[in-house]
Amino acid sequence: xxxxxxxxxxxxxxxxxxxxxxxxxxxxxxxxxxxxxxxxxxxxxxxxxxxxxxxxxxxxxxxxxxxxxxxxxxxxxxxxxxxxxxxxxxxxxxxxxxxxxxxxxxxxxxxxxxxxxxxxxxxxxxxxxxxxxxxxxxxxxxxxxxxxxxxxxxx
Length: 155
Hints:
The protein is an alpha+beta fold. The chain has four helices and nine strands, in the order βαβαβββββαββα. It has helices at residues 13-18, 35-40, 88-98, 129-154; strands at residues 7-11, 19-29, 44-45, 50-54, 57-61, 64-65, 82-85, 103-113, 116-126. Strands 1-8-9-2-7-5-4 form a seven-stranded antiparallel sheet. A two-stranded antiparallel sheet has the order 3-6. The termini are far apart.
């Protein structure tokens, strides 16, 4: 299965608005207890999440996984820092590229692949306001063209 393919659980649409994604990496997540059950129920939020390299390991910070409803008193902390699993070569490459000014590691998508929870992490460069406006204009123009094409086909 290609990178990023699988049953999509959560997407970070804001990331594509705020950043220009240059490269993506597929990473596994280290989970505790009932977290996978909450993920399978779709109770995940990637909106304010970001990734950091700490002691040559990749961690995701700010990802909210709601506690499992049928769980017990030993449920997990919803906002805890979770370790991401990548190959050493990929982590070393990310260390070098993310040190450059303006680059960030942003989680783009959480999905299930062959029964395992995976995160698509993007190496992204922040957009300026004028870049965001330009993208919105491009999207609007594309929508107008599609609308006109649909109207023309109906006739």
